[in-house]
Amino acid sequence: MEEEQSTQKSGGAGKTAAIVLLSLLLAGSLGSNYWLWTKEKAASSLAVSQVDSLSSLNTLKDSLYAQLNEEEIKVHNLRLEIAMYQSSNDSLQMLLEEKLAKIASLRAMVSSGGSPSKLRALKDSLNRLTVENTDFRTKIEEVLMQNEDYRLKMLTKDSLIAALNDKKDILSSQVEIASQPSVGPIIVTPVYMKKGVFVPQFKARKVESLKIQFDVLANKLTGKSVEKTYLVRIIDPDGIVLSTSNKQLSNSDDVYTLKEVITFDGTLKKINTKFTQEPSYKKGKYKVELKEGGEVIQSSDFSLM
């Protein structure tokens, strides 16, 4: 009996110890799980925070890149506008180069990364650059407007100068024309020798030569000497040009009776010469032409009986 009671008591004590042990193990497991859960939650929160921070950083970088691109475009457009008016050595061009260098420096700093505080500082620098570029553009526009006004004034002056030059050319041409010598009437007189003197003779069989006279009239507008060539053409009743020196020419328009080359200096020039031909002259009406530069400038006629 006593042995049974002793066995029951020891069995109850073992169950109690087992229950206590299980309770301790369960409490430890719960504590461990709670600790792991707390750690996981903290790690998740940190990861989410880091992802948000990285996303914010990337967004800030993208914003800075966009602003830099915008400023580069502005400076490039200013360069094109200035190039229309300024030389490559101009001070405005140098300012543009400085701004492009500053933008390149900011771009390099953004690319190198950094903390949000540094990027925000870069953003502040970029904002200041934007303000400076706006002020610079305003000044450039003022300069360009001044240059445009100056250009318009120069165009007006150029137009006036061109008009004056055209007028000068016209006047010079008119003066040139007016300064050219003019020629008086041409007179051809048939003559023969009588007692050592040439006297007029209109009987064809007695005519020995033709006396040719014309005046190159004085012109006060002539400023410098010019050389002039005059051709006299005497055409007989049969339409043949009287000539002694140009018989080889087949075209009668190129045949002349005589040629006079003079140097005209504005003073009166009297031309007095004669033409003689063999055989004797024919009866009928003769036509006389005085040509200069291919144009007939004077004409007359005479008749022989």
Topology:
Blueprint (H helix, E strand, L loop, with lengths): L1 H82 L7 H21 L4 H64 L7 E8 L2 E4 L8 E8 L9 E10 L22 E7 L4 E7 L8 E9 L2 E10 L1
Antiparallel strand pairs: 1-2, 1-3, 3-6, 4-5, 4-7, 7-8
What would the principal axes of the Cα set say about the shape? rod-shaped
What number of domains? 2
Helix content: 40-55%
Tally of helical runs: 3
Computed structural class: alpha+beta
N→C terminal distance: 204 Å
Order of helices and strands: HHHEEEEEEEE
**Number of extended strands:** 8
**Biggest beta sheet summary:** 4 strands, antiparallel
Cα-based radius of gyration, to the nearest Å: 59 Å
Summarize model confidence as the mean pLDDT.
76
Strand order of the largest sheet: 2-1-3-6
Instruction: Tell me the β content.
Output: 15-25%
Low-confidence stretches: none
Task: Outline the structure in words.
- By secondary structure, the chain is α+β, with helices and mostly antiparallel strands.
- The chain is built from 3 helices and 8 strands, in the order H-H-H-E-E-E-E-E-E-E-E.
- The strands form 2 sheets. Strands 2-1-3-6 form a 4-stranded antiparallel sheet, with no helix packed on it.
- Helix 1 packs parallel to helix 3 and helix 2 runs antiparallel to helix 3.
- The protein starts with a helix and ends with a strand.
- The mean pLDDT is 76.
